[in-house]
Amino acid sequence: MRLYVGGLPYQTDEQELREVFGQIGAVTFATVITDRETGRSKGFGFVEFEDDEQARAAIDQLNGSTLGNRTITVNEARERPAGGGGSRGGYQDRGSNQGGYRGGRRY
């Protein structure tokens, strides 16, 4: 199970994240998300456990706890929507003529 961890102190690195969650169970993956341009932490990350029960225990024990003077949020990560974003609104066929006027004639 993959967990979302929000509210991380900006100095938290992957090793510290792995250590904190490793006290609860066997962590198979831990990452802190960073800004592409600056390399600075965005204040959130993800952790995965070998076992779903350990992941649930981590949610119960660490959600709302304090890490480096900040209260962290821990919950089950949601899958990203397909397509990756970047689009504003639906597809519009700009080549079609949908009843507008062109050259004084109605199409």
Can you offer a commentary on this structure?
The protein is built from 2 helices and 8 strands, in the order E-H-E-E-H-E-E-E-E-E. The protein has one domain (2-76): RRM (RNA recognition motif) domain (Alpha-Beta Plaits), CATH 3.30.70.330. The chain has 107 residues and is α+β, with helices and mostly antiparallel strands. Strand 4 and strand 5 form a beta hairpin. The model is unreliable at 90-94 (pLDDT under 50). The longest helix has 11 residues, at 52-62. It has helices spanning 14-22, 52-62; strands spanning 2-6, 27-34, 41-49, 66-67, 70-71, 73-76, 101-102, 105-106.
Overall mean pLDDT stands at: 86
Q: What is the CA-CA span between the terminal residues?
A: 56 Å
| Strand-residue proportion | 25-35%
Helix coverage percent of residues?
A: 10-25%
Question: How many separate domains?
Answer: 1
Give the strand order, joined by hyphens, for the main sheet.
Answer: 2-3-1-6
Number of DSSP E strands: 8
Number of helices: 2
Assigned CATH superfamily: RRM (RNA recognition motif) domain
Residue stretches low in confidence (pLDDT < 50, at least 5 long) are 90-94
Largest sheet descriptor: 4 strands, antiparallel
